[in-house]
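Protocol step 4 of 5: obtain the predicted structure for the target chain.
Materials: sequence only (see below). No template structures provided, no constraints applied. The aim of this step is simply to have a reference model before the mutagenesis design in step 5. Sequence pasted as it appears in the construct record:
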Amino acid sequence: MPTIVFSPTVKWSWMKQRPQHLAEEFAVHGWHVYYCENRPSYDDRLTAVAPRVWVVRDKKHLVRRILPETPRPLVLWHSRARGSRKLSKAPLDLEVYDCLDEFPRCASDERRLVRQVDLVFASSARLADRMRRLHSRVTLVRNACAYEPFDHLAPDTTDWLPPADVCYVGAIAPWVDVRLLGELAAMRPDLRFRCVGPVLRGRRGIRFPGNVEMTGHVPHAEIPGLLARTSVGIVPFRLCPTALSADPVKVYEYLAAGVPIVSTPIPEAARWGDLVKLASDARGFSEAIDQVRGCDSPALRETRRLAARSNTWLHRFRRIDAVILRLFRS
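Step 4 output (structure tokens):
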């Protein structure tokens, strides 16, 4: 069976994102997966976190002792432009860059990485267009959702929380429009808002009105239960380069939960047409929330779920696997 190494990226047990979801799909389909966490450590033990998935902390030990003995072919998968040079010294058969974000401060590192890889995937149309100016083998593979947990809800350990009128799932990061969110909550004291996710460094002093509940980090397994008790999901992103290039996983998860969605007009939200209502400011969000709640129905909820069922991580893995297989055969 082939082997894939995910170069240093988000901690496995933190917010579950594209790298963890894809790692699981590779493993389900028979690959040996080594997932490197982005923190220095001299602990050479491997931690099994799923069948055929091991978390790695000591990258030198992985390169020197483990990878020479692993099944081939050996693929190195980069999800970020920084912190992956040591792994590039491994005996590789294929090196891949999965471009997930646009961070201007990482531009030089990204250009250097793109020059050395054999293949590039990109999670949004804007990112794919940018990558095609740098590399000849670029494939658009958007984000997705794990639909099964939304279809068969597990026992909900958060059922003590009251239902929320409006929910934002994700980190309070620099690309989140906290001013818009604050103004919206102040404008609508009749609504209960819930932000599900950590507050990142640089945003920890932010204060919202009292009708905004901040849960902090919540295990991914609890997200379906929280969204099952939500009326509207929102994507209040600033129109900055990072957000304009993003394909938010939360949109797919809102769709899987069947809830109406209101987002700022980022391209990957706008492409959903009537499934995502667009608004640019607090007043527009307020009006849009009332509109989507007022016209919601079981039929519309099933339409959203159908869209999510057609955009799972299995669909994305199949596309990725086909591209990799085609390259190996050539």
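Step 4 remarks: The chain has 13 helices and 14 strands. The chain has two domains: 3-144+312-329, 148-309.
Proceed to step 5.
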